[in-house]
Amino acid sequence: MNTKVVYADFDGTFVKGDSYIRSLLFFAGYTKFLKSLPELIIIVIGYFFKAVSRDEAKKRSFRLIYKGMETELIERKLNDFYNQMHVFPKVKKKISELRDIGCKIIVVTASPDIYMNFMAEKFGFDECICTQTEKNGRFLTGRLIGNNCNYSEKVSRIKTSKYYDKDAQIIVFGNSKGDEEMFKISTEFYFVDKSGNLKKGRTPW
Fold first, then answer.
1. For helices 71-83 and 113-122, what crossing angle results, to 10°?
2. Cα(178)–Cα(180) distance, integer angstroms
3. CB neighbour class for 31 (10 Å; exposed up to 12, middle 13-18, buried from 19)
4. Going by C-beta distance under 8 Å and a sequence separation of 6 or more, which residues neighbour residue 180?
5. N or C, fewer C-beta in 10 Å, the chain?
6. What secondary structure does DSSP assign to 162-180, as a single string?
7. Using CA of residue 143, residue 147, residue 148, residue 154, what is the dihedral sign?
8. DSSP alpha helices (H): ranges in the chain?
9. Main-chain phi, psi angles of 10, to 5 degrees
């Protein structure tokens, strides 16, 4: 078992906070976001009271904000969005150490490809496994392709990805129960708390 592959969650693990929530305002702009706010609040309330699932809330919010948006508009703003990311120093340091000894570093996230492919490249990840979105020419349709990349879906995507090797040593970084299935297939894992501290092999649940 000489090969080592690192699979790291993005939101709340590599960077502080939830990039998807921030993206809704950032890419929509204030005018469209404010017009969409009442419906977004209804989606959030439905999720809070378990009337809609996490995945359904994601689909509805994505469709509400992104349907009909030009991909070029997003592309023009990607670098500014990247500059808003706050990377946890301790996580970055540990992942850099693993990269230096030859590990492939893969980001695995529920956040969408419309900005995650760019983020992965800018942050130096070797591969990006994320939620896929549907495009129609230059426009987003507002639909997701396949399942939201979270919970067990993360492992399903990992097992069909470029660098997966069942005989490799798998190192996982995560911060929530959405990463628990990844922890289960790991030979070593790190839980990242809200302050960006690493806890090897331990979760708070």
1. 40
2. 6
3. exposed
4. 151, 174, 203
5. C
6. TT--TTSEEEEEE-SGGGH
7. negative
8. 19-48, 54-66, 71-83, 89-100, 113-122, 152-159, 180-185
9. -105, -65
DSSP 126-158: SEEEEEEEEEETTEEEEEEESS-S-THHHHHHH
**What SS3 state is found at 126?**
coil
Contact 59, 75 (CB under 8 A): no
Burial class (CB in 10 A: 0-12, 13-18, 19+), 146: exposed
C-beta of residue 155 within 8 angstroms of C-beta of residue 174 = no
Contacts of 197 (CB under 8 A, 6+ apart): 90
Give CA 31 to chain center in angstroms. Answer: 26
Amino acid letter, residue 139? F
* DSSP for residue 104: E
Cβ neighbours around 159 below 10 Å, total: 10
pLDDT tens column, 8-63: 999 999 999 999 999 999 999 999 999 999 999 999 999 999 999 999 999 999 99
Q: Which of 148, 201, 197 is nearest to 171 (CA)?
A: 201
Backbone angles phi, psi at 53, to 5 degrees: -75, 165
